[in-house]
Design brief:
Layout lengths: L1 H8 L5 H7 E5 L2 H17 L6 E6 L3 E6 L3 E4 L9 E2 L8 E7 L5 E9 L2 E9 L1 H8 E3 L2 E3 L12 E2 L5 E2 L2 E5 L5 H7 L6 E5 L2 H4 L2 H7 L5 H18 L33 H9 L14 H15 L1 H103 L8 H18 L10 H9 L8 H15 L1 H31 L4 H6 L8 H26 L2 H4 L4 H50 L13
Parallel strand pairs: 1-10, 1-13, 13-14
Antiparallel strand pairs: 2-3, 4-6, 4-9, 5-8, 6-7, 7-8, 11-12
Amino acid sequence: MVASWMGQRAGAPDGHAEMRGVVMLAAANDTVERLNDAAQAVRAAADELGPEHVYEVKGGRSLRLRQGDHVLVRLNDRAQRMHEGPDVLNGYRGIVEAIETGGSVQVAWQQQGPDGHDTHRAKLSPEFIGGGGLSLGYAMTGHKAEGLTVAADWALPDGTRQGGTVLVHAAGMDEPGLHVATSRHRDKVILFAGRDQLETLADTHELGVPRTDVQLERRVVAGLAEQARTRPGTGNDPPVHDDLGRAAGRGPGPAGGSGRHPSLEDLRRAVLGPVEERPDDTPIADSADAWARLKAEAAEEDRPVAELRAAWSEQARAAEQLAALEPRLARAQADAARAAKAEGVLAPLRGQLQTARDTQTAAEQAAAAGAQTLAGRAEQLRAELARAWNAERPGAGDAARTVRAGAGRLGLRRGQVRAARQQLQDWAGRWRPVVGELERGSDGVVGYAAAHPANDGVGGSIARYAVDRVRAEAPEHAEVLARAQQARRVTDDAQAAFTRAAETVLRPHPARLAAGEPDLSGQVGALGEQTQAARARLAAATERVAALSADPTITSRPDPGAFLAAERTVWSWRDQALRRQAAARARQAAEQQAEQNARRARARNHEMNQQPGRRQGPRLGR
């Protein structure tokens, strides 16, 4: 755009005529600043500008001015408050004639007078400039140019006449702004816009990449019209101030203009020329109709391309699925192979362990059966002994009392005492193996027998004696118990050997163990079927892509390879954008769910704290 501006200003008799005859317009201030900076840089490189000075402007910006620069006054200053000379008003366009050492700038501008253009000069102070009173004036916003008429009359180097040209950076302009920008010229207007500034990736995906210059121009014009129709007004810059009524270039309005907003056909003529010059390019009534027709034509012309995009998507999904399944299948197969190898080691040990367990079970059952038999015999013997003890115990007590009574003063019961002692000795001899509490001394036996019935708590001694006697009479039971204990030891040893072997051969890879990955040996069949299905899906999609790529509507293009590469790039961008949108929606849904859960938890806690009788903690200040 700046290069075109340089060509349009060529041959101008002076800077003032150049400003009146050529101007660049844009929608946003940042675009205007870039155009101004670029124009200044190009002129400086061409040695058209003199010394420079850099000013700090409010808002943290800086302004670089050079002698010869085109500038635009942006603030009113009357009565020479911050300048010397006639009043300077917002909207004046002038030329920097000199920059003084202290930073003051002498600016000259022209206004239409009775006898032509009169030149006026003022010296602007650094304070005025620092307050935002001056900016570069090669470009301005479309709204700022409202009321301005761009007109000129000089010969261009190619012999044509320059009658007034407006160069418009159209991207981003709303309908009023585009109307203002395209109605300032007396001679011609040149629109600049990139298709990527007017179409989204979805638009490009739907309409395809333009194959010819005509298609590209139609798409850009339709995009400009649609943008102007749908974009909300910005009011980016106020219109030119009313004080510019006598400013240079001010006219009653657009030359020959009717005041209406430009239609798509106006824009189309501005960019493409008269309709009759392009018989193959049917006029379009308005922007909505433009997009509808473009989409209809694209749908018909690019049907194979649309199908190709769908095939690419199917191919990508199948490839992603296969890329996820194949490593899992490989891990499952490795796990299954490791499990099979482990089974070869563990199978003999498992058999040995099972045999040991069976032997232990049989031995323990035999021991339990023998123990039950011995318990019955011991109980029978205990009952017999208890009856005998209870039968003999009163007699022993009587004998003990006879011994304690003695032979008498004359010894008349000496024989009875002797018989009683013998009776006690015989009784103690019979029962001492059974009742260990019986003392061996005569006096001890007499004392024990005389304690009847206090010493009747001998049931435990009788029961133990019965068990020991029965076991002694059945030595084969001890052998059965020994075999059961040995079988338990053999089983424990077999279990320990099997456990050690299993920990060695079944231990997963350390990296997978650290990552917490599960064993997949049992999923080989399912993963194999899924992987086979994904491979078939990918093969079908690849075959479909090859068939569509060979479609005549694609191979008949000038460079089918470049076309397919471009289409693939556009599809990839859109696919990635859709994926990011889906991921963003998933994250947003998760965050909303988490926030909802947190709110519910806080509400439950609040309800619990409000329950009557619920113990409250201490309050501060009490």
